[in-house]
Amino acid sequence: MSRGAVNPEQQAVGAVIVAAGEGRRMDGVDKIFAPMMGRPLVSHSVAAFDDFHRVGRIVLVLAPKNLDRGRRLVEESGWNKVANVCAGMERRQDSVRRGLDSLRAVEWVVVHDGARPLVSADVIDRGLDAARETGAAAAAVPVTDTIKTADPAGLVTRTLPRDELWATQTPQVFRRRLLSEAHHRVDQDVTDDAAMVERLGGAVKLFMGSYDNLKVTTPNDLAVAEALLRARG
C-alpha cells in the first residue's frame, strides 16, 4: 500500500498531540520549538505519528502564539496526516478537548504530549492493542525508586509497595465516545485523560511504555532526550 493510501484501520484512528503548555521551567525557552537534532522538539513527536501506519489523522494543539509557526512547520515537513492545527487553552484537559472536537470521524483517539519526542512505533502499537480490552489504555513504566508519603513536616507516614506503582506516560488511547463523555462530564482538574475516565468508573488498562519516553520539562531533560535520540542512530 502506498504512503498516500488510507486503509480502514487508519480511518478509525486519530491522534491528538498536545503542545500548548508554557514551559515555565525551561529558562525562558519555548520548549516545544527548542532545537533537538536540528529540528524543533515537537516535530519528533508529530513525525512519529505521521509515519505510523495505524494512525490516519492528526490534530496538533499549540499555544495561540505558536499557531502560525506550527502551521508553517506542518507545511515544511510535509506531514500529510495533520488535519488541523488548533489553539489550546490554559488547562491541559481543555487543550485535549479542543483537539478532540476537531478530530472527526474516528473510533479511536491517541492522546500524546508533544513534549515527549522519543515515542516509538512499538509503544503506540501496544497502546492501540491494549485499548481494545477496556476502551481506555495508558502507557506506563514500573516505578524503580522507593516511594514514601510524608506529612507537612516532612516525616514519613507510609512506604508504598513498589510492585504496585507505575509511572504513567503518554500515549494514552481511548475509544472516541468514551473520551468525549469523560471530557463533557469531568470538569475537575486532572493531570491526564486516563484520570478523567477513572472518575467515570471506567477501567484503564496499563501497557508497557518506555523509560526513554521522557517528558521534556527542563533544559536537562532536553539534553538527555537529545542524547538518547543520538544513541538510536
Please explain how this structure is put together.
Helices cover 35% and strands 24% of the residues. The protein has helices at residues 8-12, 41-51, 67-77, 92-101, 121-134, 176-185, 193-199, 219-231; strands spanning 13-19, 35-36, 39-40, 57-62, 82-87, 108-113, 136-142, 148-150, 156-159, 166-175, 205-208. A hairpin with a 2-residue loop joins strand 2 and strand 3. It starts with 7 loop residues before the first helix and ends with a helix. The relative contact order is 0.17. The model has no long low-confidence stretch (mean pLDDT 93).
Q: What is the CATH third-level topology name?
A: Spore Coat Polysaccharide Biosynthesis Protein SpsA, Chain A
Number of strands: 11
- Span between N and C termini? 27 Å
Structural class comes to: alpha/beta
Number of helices: 8
Shape: globular
CATH architectural label: Alpha-Beta Complex
Q: Extract low-pLDDT stretches.
A: none
Bin the strand percentage: 15-25%
Q: State the fourth-level CATH superfamily.
A: Spore Coat Polysaccharide Biosynthesis Protein SpsA, Chain A
SSE sequence, one letter per element: HEEEHEHEHEHEEEEHHEH
Largest sheet: 7 strands, mixed
Residue share in helix = 25-40%
